[in-house]
Design goal:
Chain lengths: 307, 307
């Protein structure tokens, strides 16, 4: 195995599963752990040259779900193999690729970035994390975070993936159009610009260093979708039964504890396959963009015995 | 060490820290793990004699925080020692006691239930979990869960603690009065019966087996407190800076995905020490009680340079 790779086995427990973002939260830990292992810095306690804390913030999170290892389907006692590879992305960033597979089904040592970008295996969950080192530019303020690497961050030795796969370019386009999926005439818009406005929830959204937690953004989007779901008169079991196929988010900014979030949703449905939907979510604070996300999923099939 | 005890070391990561209930969620995993280890059953995959899933549900969760290992203060990279002991509580229940201490400060093999109930050390976090095996009485319904132990649950060999410490008696009194703290003339009520009404949040509240997750109840209570906090015109930093001293919750029932929660709060303040407060929270679904919780905490001292 390469020096940039970490292999682990995991048994799914309550704290890393469910319909919220707990699995993604755990994958985020694995990203930090893999980078710590590959880059000579302890990400949990990283400091800049001047001694200030610096955080390996999430810039882009992409999950691709082709089969059994599905974020909403993993349940108590399920066993998975996880391979995490860290790749070069410049002096202030990292790219980490994770593959989660049912225990014992895929050789964990056989993992190549090509698999992620073009040749995914069935029944695996692939997660791509592009992260950037950031520090606060002013104490107690989460707006205007600045790039700032730890003094001991080693990255020159890391393998690379072709530049065309790097997230920043994708993200620029998503930010300007509010979606990661463009020009899809086979989809019909069924809700446009539905906005949920709510204060930051200090009881759920923040991490212990006083920043909005990357995994909370998923929950903020999903909670807003659940509200739209009810407005559309839809069923809770269809919400819980969604099968995520692809989920991308670009983290553009952070929030302060007194901020109010505006989450604007646009929902599209496939014209000939109405269980297939695409959700775009744009999160803003007082007009300032803090995240863009696009989720493709299939609603649960209501089955023949239901209307 | 006794056969009923599990010792572990943990390094605090983002997914197990923050102002939400992520640390408690992780402690819940440790309860299930300790019971699996002590009682010959795999709690994650437990089945009744008839082959139905049974869950080691949380009936009572009590956290006592005397110092440095504090749920809101544990941050990235902090290292803790955890000792978990499982005690007898009958054929359908377990009692698990956890002590979390800063790494290397307390001999992990020296742990006795007396320490928990009467002689707590400073700088430790003590958590008591009383759990009951329950199964669904009807498929797809979370109301009316029934007691139901796994076929391979061994408990006769477990040590005991004196009956007077068992939670059920405490909980009966709390359910009838809506608080775990009675008759406190040194406290002044500053908000009585403030009710937050909100639908179950399917994006955050549920676990993968379709039950409301025990750790979500803490977040439901804390989110309601944060709403009351803003109604009272209070500061976000004082909310984030709260130091929990004692937190008890009795889980009385579960919720269905279409339920709406009514969270009723009563807030009391110490007459001569106004930073010390006691919150009572009663959670109901259509009048049916599902939880009672009492939290004692100190608000952050605003300090001399602030009004």
């Amino acid at each position: 195995m390469n020096h940039n790779t970490v292999i682990r086995q995991a048994t799914v427990t309550p704290s890393m599963s469910g319909f919220n973002a707990q699995l993604y939260a755990r994958i985020g830990d694995w990203t930090w752990d893999a980078v710590s292992s590959a880059c000579s810095t302890d990400v949990l306690t990283a400091r800049t040259v001047s001694g200030d804390p610096t955080y390996l913030a999430f810039y882009y999170f992409h999950a691709q779900c082709t089969g059994a290892v599905h974020p909403h389907r993993l349940s108590f006692g399920d066993r998975i193999d996880v391979v995490s590879g860290v790749f070069a992305a410049g002096g202030d960033s990292t790219l980490t690729l994770h593959r989660l597979s049912p225990a014992g089904t895929v050789d964990p040592t056989a993992f190549h970035w090509r698999e992620f970008y073009g040749e995914p295996r069935p029944d695996c969950l692939y997660v791509e994390n592009f992260n950037r080192w950031v520090a606060r530019s002013a104490a107690d303020r989460n707006h205007g975070l600045e790039r700032s690497s730890p003094h001991d961050f080693a990255h020159e030795h890391l393998p690379t993936v072709p530049r065309q796969y790097y997230a920043p370019r994708l993200c620029v386009a998503a930010r300007s159009s509010g979606t990661f999926r463009h020009h899809e005439p086979d989809h019909l818009t069924i809700a446009r610009g539905y906005t949920v406005r709510r204060p930051v929830d200090l009881a759920r959204d923040f991490n212990p260093v006083g920043l909005m937690y990357f995994a909370s953004y998923f929950s903020v989007v999903d909670s807003a979708l659940w509200e739209l779901w009810r407005v559309l008169g839809r069923d809770s079991s269809a919400f819980l039964g969604r099968r995520i196929e692809d989920q991308k988010i670009n983290y553009v900014g952070n929030a302060d504890p007194d901020d109010t979030l505006d989450v604007t949703l646009t929902l599209r449905q496939h014209r000939t396959d109405p269980l297939g939907e695409v959700l775009d979510a744009v999160v803003r604070v007082e007009g300032r963009l803090i995240a863009v996300s696009t989720v493709s999923y299939r609603r649960a099939d209501p089955g023949p015995d239901r209307p």
